[in-house]
Design goal:
Layout: H1 2-25, H2 27-40, H3 59-62, H4 66-85, H5 106-109, H6 123-133, E1 135-136, H7 152-158, E2 160-161, H8 163-176, E3 181-188, H9 190-193, H10 231-259, E4 273-279, E5 290-293, E6 298-301, E7 307-314, E8 319-322, E9 343-345, H11 356-361, H12 363-370, H13 386-390, E10 397-402, E11 405-410, E12 419-426, E13 434-441, E14 448-454, E15 459-464, E16 472-477, E17 486-490, E18 499-504, E19 508-513, E20 520-527, E21 548-555, E22 567-573, E23 578-583, E24 594-598, E25 601-603, E26 608-610, E27 617-620, H14 631-671, H15 682-685
Parallel strand pairs: 1-2
Antiparallel strand pairs: 3-4, 3-7, 4-5, 5-6, 7-8, 8-9, 10-11, 11-12, 12-13, 13-14, 14-15, 15-16, 16-17, 17-18, 18-19, 19-20, 20-21, 21-22, 22-23, 23-24, 24-27, 25-26
Helix pairs in contact: 6-8
Length: 686
């Protein structure tokens, strides 16, 4: 046994010397990496963990119980066997010291907790909360394990920590929510370890994957022969296209080399220590096993190239060591923890020692391990108040830089206008040319939800939640001045006129309707130049009426009427004093019936009179019945159209007044922004 210990000491010293050689050769790289990592959170002042007050902590933080001491003894024995069997592998992360300087086993540092917030019942809500609530601190040395692991309560109190602190807190929340989650100690890429997302596409800009439509193959179909083409012409065309492609590629390569530098090779690739969360399939109906990066809160496939290897995993009940080859990263790893060949468990149900030589000398330890169970967590109960949960950002704001994009986040009620998120998209890699800005709002009394600003077209689009007093759904504009170009969308089901959208400019206005009983779906109005002295009643005195030149209405097919009685389009030429009607077509018809009334009204001193002649009434109704050839029918139809024309002019004036009212209300809402507070949020109401 003494000889074995001497050999182990020699092997350990040799390993230490090798590690020193590696660290010496990579000393320059190591000094650069922490600086890069510090630049990620350079807006946060430095924090001295040695200055924290631990006097108020419970006794479980400062001492170890009998069960915990026994567990540390078992862990040391397990580590002794591990180093003997695998002398070339890095040391395991088993029992670092806590904030009180007491060694604690990593499994007992987990405290499964279900906090009373609906968002934290799903893994995405837990991951988002941890990534937003905590401030990232890089490891002191990127290739060595941390010497300490603080309790989740202390991490929550000071809202900062390294990757292991993030992982333990997130895993505690996931296990409390019912997930089969594990902490992972392994190796990852520089971008993952340093929280560098400048080469990643912003998740808000990712387009959803389109599901390809499977076309049904027809057994019997006619083969369409292709047109005959000259082979010589095709060859010449192909050569010309190849030459053009080569020229384009050369130009693009020149531009890329000038604008973007080639990514530098990481000298510590495969050596950077990182911790993340493993969620196994099964519980909570998780279909596939996946990883969670605690720094970002994003999920990753287990075959992601960013994760380069795994040393060990643990939860609140046990500890497993990975015995599989990680030369290809995590691609070929099996996460069946019950497989004793691929995963070496520390507290097995039937403990089997790794070597026969140590089996004889450790009979007492074997008996203890067979009946030993993991002690309960030494960490106190975790609590997060409603105020802390709402204000998740330690500095009140969080900024994430992506590839050609910047994402800013605020806690609710931090900004007076209710702004909680802003995405700025740039047109260049240096992020100097702003292309588009999208803002999200919360708790706005005017129900404003999102605003998109296109810096190239200068168009702004406001999106509203249901509940706006004017039933607005979206509003696109360049300014809130009248007749500068506005597009307004409404919640049409809540309106009496079923208006869905209104597009207005200085010369025209178009309205779109949905689900009307009269089957009207489009109304288009053309305006002329203003005349002096024409004011709008009930509006600002500086606004003048625009003369109506033409009103055009389009109708859907009414199946309750014959086609030659169902109007498809009608045009009221106000200045020309004429009306044109176009009827729908039957299925077998090719030419629509039309009727035109041209200056059929003569005005005298008393009243208007209608005169129908061949010159004033022109009709083309090839498929119409005898009823439509009756002059009395046309006379009554014209009288009805004249009445509807007066009503239409009145409706157009009301639409103009509504546009002005919307602009006035929106201007008042933007100058006097008010935020709403839930009746259940007592702290905010005070």
């Amino acid at each position: 046994m003494e000889a074995l210990e001497e050999n182990e000491e020699v092997e350990q010293t040799a390993e230490d010397l090798n590690s020193l050689d590696i660290s010496d050769s990579l000393q320059d790289a190591e000094t650069k990496v922490p600086e890069e990592a510090d630049s990620v959170s350079n807006d946060v002042p430095g924090f001295d963990w040695s200055s924290i007050d631990t006097s108020h902590l419970p006794s479980s933080y400062k001492t170890n119980s009998h069960q915990e001491k026994k567990l540390l003894h078992i862990a040391d024995h397990f580590l002794q066997q591990y180093t003997h069997v695998c002398p070339d592998r890095k040391p395991l992360f088993l029992h670092p010291v806590n904030e009180c300087g007491v060694e604690k086993f990593v499994s007992t540092t987990l405290r499964p907790t279900l906090l009373p917030y609906p968002e934290l019942y799903h893994w995405s809500g837990c991951a988002s909360f941890v990534s937003n609530y905590l401030t990232m601190e890089p490891l002191k040395c990127p290739i060595t394990l941390p010497s300490s692991l603080y309790s989740p309560t202390t991490i929550l109190k000071y809202q900062r920590g390294n990757c292991f602190d993030f992982t333990v807190l997130l895993c505690s929340l996931l296990i409390g929510a019912g997930y089969d989650a594990y902490c992972v100690h392994g190796y990852a890429s520089q971008e993952i370890c340093a929280l560098d997302q400048t080469q990643d596409l912003c998740p808000l800009l990712r387009k959803p994957q389109e599901v390809p439509m499977t076309k049904k193959s027809r057994k019997y179909r006619v083969k369409i022969l292709a047109e005959p083409q000259s082979k010589f012409e095709l060859q010449q065309k192909a050569k010309k296209e190849e030459a053009e492609d080569v020229e384009k590629k050369e130009e693009e390569e020149e531009v890329v080399t000038e604008v973007q530098e080639k990514p530098k090779r990481d000298p510590l690739h495969g050596l950077r220590v990182h911790a993340w969360v493993l969620v196994l399939s099964g519980k909570r109906k998780v279909p596939e096993t996946f990883f969670i990066n605690p720094f970002t809160g994003n999920s990753h496939n287990t075959m992601d190239d960013c994760f380069l290897g795994i040393e060990s995993v643990w939860n609140h009940r046990n500890y497993w060591v990975n015995m599989q080859d990680c030369r290809k990263g995590c691609r070929d790893l099996s996460f069946d923890l019950s497989d004793a060949i691929r995963w070496e468990i520390m507290l097995p149900e039937s403990n089997k020692l790794l070597t026969e030589s140590s089996e004889r000398d450790m009979d007492d330890t074997k008996e203890n391990e067979e009946s030993f169970e993991m002690p309960l967590s030494w960490v106190a109960r975790m609590n997060v108040s409603c105020r802390e949960f709402e204000n998740q950002y330690s500095q009140g704001k969080k900024v994430i830089m992506y590839k050609q994009a910047k994402l800013e986040k605020w806690a609710p009620y931090v900004n007076g206008d209710g702004l909680v998120e802003r995405l700025t998209v740039y047109g260049d890699l240096d992020c100097t040319e702003v292309v588009e800005v999208t803002e999200w709002f919360k708790n706005r009394e005017d129900m404003l939800d999102m605003r998109k600003m296109n810096k190239q077209t200068q168009l702004t689009t406001d999106y509203f939640k249901p509940g706006h007093p004017l039933l607005l759904k979206a509003h696109t504009y360049t300014s809130l001045e009248a007749e500068t170009g506005h597009s307004m969308e409404f919640y049409h089901k809540a309106r009496a006129d079923d208006l869905q959208k209104r597009v207005e400019s200085a010369t025209e206005m178009t309205e779109y309707f949905v689900g009307r009983d009269d089957f009207l779906h489009i109304r288009h109005v053309e305006f002329g130049e203003r005349e002096d002295g024409m004011d709008v009643a009930g509006t600002r005195p500086d606004v003048h009426l625009r003369p109506i030149v033409q009103i055009k209405e389009c109708f859907h097919r009414n199946p309750g009427k014959p086609a030659d009685e169902d109007i498809e389009e009608r045009i009221f030429m106000i200045e020309d004093d004429s009306i044109r009607l176009t009827y729908h077509l039957e299925d077998h018809d090719t030419i629509a019936s039309k009727v035109a009334f041209l200056r059929a009204i003569q005005r005298d001193r008393k009243e208007e009179e209608i005169f129908l002649t061949r010159d004033t009434c022109v009709k083309y109704q090839p498929w119409s019945s005898e009823k439509h050839k009756n002059v009395l029918h046309l006379y009554k139809l014209l009288w009805e159209l004249r009445k509807e024309q007066k009503e239409l002019k009145h409706q157009v004036r009301e639409s103009e007044a509504e546009v002005l009212n919307v602009l006035k209300v929106r201007e008042d809402e933007e100058t006097n922004i008010k935020l709403t507070v839930s009746m259940y949020n007592a702290a905010k109401r005070e």
